[in-house]
Inverse folding.
């Protein structure tokens, strides 16, 4: 299993190949389209992340000291971004998730998605991922 | 006629680069940009006059007081109020509405009814919900038609003798639709009801005369009409404002304080507790002066031209749906393209340096009406140009194509 | 050590002429002057970043949001709050106090008692009188001693189990006296009472740590600490702020609006309805940064030096009476000379270009205590100089002579 | 009887003699000291003008179509200024008082006393004088 930092570096490398922002966005859109949609019953309010302009649902489970995340969104670029987040966080253990420093979003140039606002959900989403990890950690 | 390229030189931010391209600012309904004339009025206040007002007798304080009160005159004159003291400075539209909603707590009872519309901004819904919760009164809602206009027949039938107040926006921030507020006010008055008009969007785009409208209360924010953040005004007819209890307690709003008994000051001070946003108020009147120097008639004509130009071009785009596409509206276009999420369109436009707003625009009931998660809203101001619109149309097409 | 002549260059207004002589600004307790660093922060906001916050996803809005929220961090760090969301931006001290007084309407009953002091600013009296009127609760007053200090024995005996809240200023704006708020807070907490501290004067002159003070609520205004008008903050412990109902209804403070049910947003947004004073908040944090670059320790030491220098010289003037002439005070001197009316002294000082405040300073109960119509109040800031004080002393002597 | 404008001009001329502000103020102070004080029973709240930092009491009476003003203040410079106002207004008829344009205050350089503030009472005082005149006029 790769570490969180290794995966982030890999993503950064991948994005470095793109010549301009439109290629990056096209890639995110493709990622978004390829991320399987939740079935209706997982798109429930208790899975909804507060603070997203688009709706984002996040689901998690915990087995063998490892957290599995699944997510969905009604906006496709958000879906692309969260598919990257899932790639980074899903399959890691709670401790590593909690201590992770997430820098790939800035480094691949998606900063505006990171503004400190309730309306833009990326920070809210990372926070929710960490809250899940904390919950699982304390369950152990 | 208005010389837009000359005007643009007054707005330093319009020369800015965003994401390595020229900024195209089409988010004017959220907040307008600020000309040098206003920025300088604020800076000069701090450089030359800054002092607390009303209570001081030294020259600086007298100067600051005169500038502050002179701003009140400018705003009174521009909006056609009868008296200076009918203009209360607030921190914005939301604050103005809340002064009234909290002021009505004692005079509204569980037998009374209040009317809002389905197209109100949350700021003109939530305070009335809170008032209803406190008083047990009932909130009734004028529905909108599918073209976005108010259902006026429904309004008439909602106007029963129990209705004490009607709360309505002058112009919808989401749809741009201009409501027939004169008719709404006249009908309400015949029914013995009072009317508060949320002028957050109305005040910025055409000239209004409060006395001719015969409106009871009118509220607006400076930051929507080239003025600074943190300031706005509440207009109320003298006798109504006098009948309300004060909103906040503090310095300035009292004339006599002992622990036995406190007397409140007269209008407008009764509602201006504490040190006000002095620089903001002075900036506000500078903004009104600036817009008048351009001329509200010119602004109206030119913005209509931009609106028509953009609407026509947008309509040619595949699967576009414009909400509130009627004739009588300001330069605001809310739309969606196919099933694309508005935030996806907005994110891509941002990469082209184009600032539009996406989402619910604080009008969730409108979204519920159309059963959509939000819209892309482009709103133009008199400093925008047709060539910006061309670039915008182009970018919308590209975004739609990227999203596939 | 602080280089006052270098610092003065930051304040354009200090070079101003008033009545043909150099301005000497000794009205700092009413409002402080604004350095270029703050003026520029505001101008630059309008020139480069101006946009509505929180709701937008375009770059400009993201920038503005980050600057606004970053200001919250700066203020949280400076005042030592535990969390960002414990800092609520207000339009000033008065607004902050009113958020709490209106928030307590439901939780205070006619059996409860509230405590204020005789030396409070009207802003920290009137809202509690209004609260008592609405709830039937009782307002009790800590008297002051003739040296202006609080009668702490009386405070202790007022602190009965019925007392729910104590409202006290950190520093008296009229007397300059620094109250023993740590002791007041600890006694209140032992009694099960909460404490709100009016920090309008406190925040500007020394560094405070909210967590160490263990204060429940703390309020202040930016315009008293080199910041802009129309902005301030309310600090409250998370669990207390969470337990209060929202103050105003509007955009930003809700998370979901339908006509059936509206859900309120989390802290701090619950209390920040409507478009906030974005430029003001950014200017506020620039002011904190500026003062920290000078150093609050340096400020405290230097202002004490000015105070001692002026006090000593003033005391030599015939028939002068200084109110609150104790050791533990900030650089504020309130005085009268013989039976001369303070406004007569103030008018003459103004002719010498010296701005002092005269009158009751929004503290009528203090005036009643000393049975005087008002005082002349000279208040010094870290950008004032000893040679200004020399000119002031001279002018006071001349005024006294003219009045005969 | 001189007109209001004539009296104002006279006052302006008098003040033109002074070389600097301190002579003007000394003159105002002297005027203030020479204006007889009210007896206690006239210093009542109903005669008090709201909006003065110093207290100003104003009394009026009406006889033979002429309004007589008396005033007092607890501050001496205010007293000096109101003694000028009395000189201008007292003994005039209501119509002339109502239509008078008061410019001498600015012209003798007492502008700061004229700021549009409740705390500075000169404007409040002139307003009160006119209110009295209006009341007497409508009584006729
Ligand atoms: C002790 C004190 N409390 C409250 C206030 C009111 O502050 P503001 O007018 O900024 O609301 C002041 C300022 O005048 C003050 O000095
Ligand atoms: C129609 C309408 N009402 C109210 C508001 C609220 O104005 P503010 O945020 O300035 O208080 C707005 C602005 O967003 C608006 O467009």
């Amino acid at each position: 299993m790769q570490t969180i930092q290794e995966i982030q570096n890999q993503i950064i490398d991948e994005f470095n190949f793109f010549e301009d922002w439109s290629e990056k966005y096209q890639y995110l859109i493709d990622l978004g389209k390829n991320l399987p949609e939740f079935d209706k019953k997982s798109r429930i309010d208790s899975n909804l992340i507060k603070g997203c302009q688009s709706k984002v649902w996040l689901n998690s489970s915990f087995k063998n000291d490892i957290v599995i995340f699944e997510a969905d969104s009604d906006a496709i670029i958000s879906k692309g971004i969260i598919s990257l987040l899932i790639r980074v966080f899903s399959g890691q253990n709670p401790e590593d998730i909690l201590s992770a420093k997430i820098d790939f979003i800035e480094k691949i140039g998606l900063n505006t998605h990171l503004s400190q606002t309730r309306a833009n959900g990326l920070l809210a989403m990372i926070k929710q991922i960490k809250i899940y990890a904390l919950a699982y950690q304390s369950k152990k | 006629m208005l010389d837009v390229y000359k005007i643009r030189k007054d707005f330093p931010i319009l020369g800015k680069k965003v994401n390595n391209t020229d900024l195209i600012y089409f988010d004017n309904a959220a907040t307008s940009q600020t000309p040098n004339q206003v920025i300088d009025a604020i800076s000069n206040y701090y450089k030359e006059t800054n002092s607390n007002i009303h209570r001081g007798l030294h020259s600086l304080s007298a100067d600051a007081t005169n500038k502050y009160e002179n701003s009140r005159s400018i705003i009174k004159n521009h909006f056609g109020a009868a008296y200076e003291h009918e203009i209360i400075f607030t921190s914005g539209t939301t604050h103005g509405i809340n002064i009234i909603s909290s002021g009505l707590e004692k005079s509204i009872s569980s037998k009374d009814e209040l009317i809002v519309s389905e197209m109100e901004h949350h700021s003109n819904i939530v305070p009335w919900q809170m008032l209803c919760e406190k008083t047990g009164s009932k909130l009734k809602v004028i529905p909108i038609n599918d073209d976005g206009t108010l259902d006026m027949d429904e309004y008439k039938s909602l106007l029963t003798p129990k209705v004490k107040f009607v709360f309505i926006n002058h112009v919808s921030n989401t749809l741009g639709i201009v409501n027939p507020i004169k008719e709404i006010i006249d009908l309400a008055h015949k029914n013995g009801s009072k009317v508060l008009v949320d002028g957050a969007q109305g005040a910025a785009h055409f000239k209004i005369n409060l006395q001719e409208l015969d409106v009871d209360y009118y509220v607006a924010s400076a930051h929507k009409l080239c003025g600074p953040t943190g300031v706005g005004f509440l207009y109320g007819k003298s006798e109504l404002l006098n009948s309300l209890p004060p909103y906040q307690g503090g310095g300035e709003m009292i004339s006599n304080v002992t622990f036995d008994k406190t007397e409140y000051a007269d209008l407008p001070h009764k509602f201006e507790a504490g040190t006000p946003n002095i620089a903001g108020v002075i900036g506000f009147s500078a903004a009104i002066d600036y817009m008048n120097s351009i001329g509200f008639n010119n602004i109206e004509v030119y913005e209509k031209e931009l609106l028509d130009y953009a609407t026509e071009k947008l309509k040619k785009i595949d699967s576009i749906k414009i909400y509130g596409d009627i004739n009588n509206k300001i330069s605001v276009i809310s739309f969606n393209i196919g099933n694309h999420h508005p935030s996806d369109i907005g994110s891509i436009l941002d990469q082209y340096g184009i600032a539009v707003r996406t989402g619910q625009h604080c009008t969730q009931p409108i979204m519920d009406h159309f059963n959509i998660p939000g819209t892309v809203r482009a709103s133009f101001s008199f400093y925008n140009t047709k060539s910006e619109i061309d670039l915008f149309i182009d970018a919308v097409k590209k975004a739609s194509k990227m999203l596939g």
